[in-house]
């Protein structure tokens, strides 16, 4: 109960910014005395600060305004991409205080050296955050693969070539001794970033589609991720689009990834995926190339993107008929290709969604490719806001 | 809090049968004195009864065993089928105490006469239940169409030809004055029946597929229905199977219903749906005909059912990849055709689900075509068990 009320105060300050004790009491329906006790504990835990008395605009009785502590705990997010590694630190107010990204050829790379490199980047970002007075509270790692529910094990990440990799066990013990580590699918974290950080909030029920090399999706239902019985929900890339279509690495045929995955689009554009990967390495480089050529009017690229949009629309029509989301959000690298994919995608959705009276809102993420990394760091921040006392217990 | 504890006592008795006060106290973690007060209130509300002292097998201090009152409130369920109307009454212990079913040609029938007939059947079943001492607590109506979330309006029921029908407003006012009415999609209620009544409980996350004339599905996630933003989730029948396939009444092309719906299967079996509907009217009659011919070795019918199983498997593979359920349950009329559809269905699922290591459990419902009707009546019983005090308030 107390934990819940502490969390309520923090979430109120996160949502509405600096507020007086009286304003917090009014917002959460607790007495002034009750709020004062909660505030004392949160100050002691270093989770909030007082901005000093007489702040203009404060509602109710004059008093010092309270705010989340921008010099308290911070969340560290990391992303293992197929062609990059990124790490960032985010303070309780959501500001990115440190960030590193490096190009890396991770396809087929063994987990040990990859995670050793990632560990060094995390250590560097954590040191940077600490130098400004922040205390890293945890690390969440975004991976392009399936993570078994309730574990930190990557069951399968085909584009890395990983199977059964337990990430925390392979990170530097000096790091994991200091930082609790959690692992999640990049599409899930991208959807959480959309839910938490979108400048215009999306619906509380939406399908978030993202792409790096593969195509992933995440389902948000009533404001929470739908993870599935095993944690594997959201495998949009393997929804059959044309059941007699080309073989897919997953064992199926005619999966969406065979029509709208990066390699398929490069090939349909007359480009050789392997050559282009050598010529344009790094995160999003081939997507940027496609966007550039489409913008320049390259008919072959435009047709390839239109066909990818059609395939994505067919797969999403099935998903929308089954799930009835409030919106479909194109995020990740797909956001940059939206101008050429969206018309075909929307035509399929419009024609194939069972109730013609119902329009399915499609939106392009304003967060785009940063989603998984920001979602990872913010998920640590949310852990602190959700359970402030249990977060703080290791310190005492 | 008190409402919650009253409900907890009722659900404990529903799940475990007669128990002493001491056993109830131990199960729900409340003091003996606390349980006694709750029990007094539930006895007063006529929701439970004492079976008398000294019942053998009672745990703890000797004392009279408590049970749900089989002569208290009951739930009335009704089903509007395309070719039948059914009504039943279920007591708090789940026993069906009265039941009526009539064949009816409801395709294209206006809502007013249909609901007048349904109202007469409900009145008859309610009278029958009352004659045994039960008090009808509410009516839930199952419909083969989309019901807007939070309303009792059928937005669209293509096989009835209905659009925008607000059911309670069209029922006999003498009936609705006595009975609170709710309306839900038949597939949703079938899935709830599976969740509540299956002899072997299914997973808490499953996709329930059912069919009468159309094909519907319902999604159960963490033990609750996923209704979708507008209440329209579960439209499996309109998931694209072959995107360039035949036109569908929904406006799309190549929807699952075009391959595995009753009419499609009759046609593929060399039968004319309209003629057969005349020759074999009534609920499930054509499905029974198909099952009979398949059992007799009719090759054309067997091939038609196998192809329907393949199409269902393709659509479900997409849904399983997106939702990662613990099981897929074939319910409704489909349960009777499972022997001829399941092998092809399972072959598609096995080949197309992204993680080959993960087996998707497929099950055939033991409840079958009775699911929607039983789910409707039990959903009233659950309303009583969930909120005993607010249910009782109109009586006081």
UniProtKB/TrEMBL annotation, chains A, B:
<dbReference type="InterPro" id="IPR000600">
    <property type="entry name" value="ROK"/>
</dbReference>
<comment type="similarity">
    <text>Belongs to the ROK (NagC/XylR) family.</text>
</comment>
<protein>
    <submittedName>
        <fullName>ROK family transcriptional regulator</fullName>
    </submittedName>
</protein>
<dbReference type="Pfam" id="PF00480">
    <property type="entry name" value="ROK"/>
</dbReference>
<dbReference type="InterPro" id="IPR036388">
    <property type="entry name" value="WH-like_DNA-bd_sf"/>
</dbReference>
<dbReference type="InterPro" id="IPR043129">
    <property type="entry name" value="ATPase_NBD"/>
</dbReference>
<dbReference type="InterPro" id="IPR036390">
    <property type="entry name" value="WH_DNA-bd_sf"/>
</dbReference>
């Amino acid at each position: 109960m107390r934990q819940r009320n502490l969390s309520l105060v923090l979430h109120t300050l996160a949502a509405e910014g600096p507020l007086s004790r009286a304003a917090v009491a009014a917002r959460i329906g607790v007495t002034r005395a009750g709020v004062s006790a909660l505030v004392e504990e949160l100050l002691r835990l270093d989770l909030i600060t007082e901005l000093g008395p007489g702040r203009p605009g404060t509602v109710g009785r004059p008093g010092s305004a309270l705010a989340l502590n921008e010099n308290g705990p911070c969340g560290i997010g990391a992303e293992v991409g197929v062609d990059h590694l990124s790490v960032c630190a985010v303070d309780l107010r959501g500001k990115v205080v440190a960030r590193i990204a490096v190009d890396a050829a991770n396809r087929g790379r063994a987990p040990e050296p990859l995670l050793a490199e990632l560990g060094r980047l995390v250590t560097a970002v954590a040191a940077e955050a600490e130098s400004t007075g922040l205390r890293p509270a945890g690390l969440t790692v975004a991976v392009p693969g399936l993570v078994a529910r309730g574990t930190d094990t990557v069951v399968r990440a085909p584009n890395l070539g990983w199977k059964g990799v337990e990430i925390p066990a392979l990170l530097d013990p000096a790091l994991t001794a200091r930082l609790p580590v959690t692992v999640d699918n990049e599409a899930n974290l991208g959807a959480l970033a959309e839910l938490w950080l979108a400048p215009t909030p999306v619906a509380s029920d939406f399908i978030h589609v993202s792409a790096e090399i593969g195509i992933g999706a995440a389902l948000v239902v009533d404001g929470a991720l739908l993870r599935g019985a095993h944690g594997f929900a959201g495998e949009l890339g393997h929804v059959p689009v044309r059941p007699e279509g080309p073989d897919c690495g997953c064992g199926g045929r005619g999966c969406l990834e065979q029509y709208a995955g990066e390699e398929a689009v490069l090939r349909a554009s007359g480009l050789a995926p392997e050559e282009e990967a050598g010529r344009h390495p790094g995160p999003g480089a081939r997507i940027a190339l496609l966007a550039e050529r489409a913008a320049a009017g390259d008919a072959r690229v435009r047709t390839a993107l239109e066909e990818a949009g059609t395939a994505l629309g067919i797969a999403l029509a099935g998903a929308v008929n089954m799930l009835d989301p409030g919106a479909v959000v194109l995020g990740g690298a797909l956001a940059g290709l939206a101008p050429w994919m969206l018309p075909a995608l929307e035509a399929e959705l419009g024609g194939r969604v069972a109730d013609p009276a119902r329009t399915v809102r499609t939106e392009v993420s304003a967060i785009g490719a940063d989603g998984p990394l920001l979602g990872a760091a913010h998920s640590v921040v949310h852990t602190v806001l959700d359970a402030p006392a249990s977060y703080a217990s290791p310190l005492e």
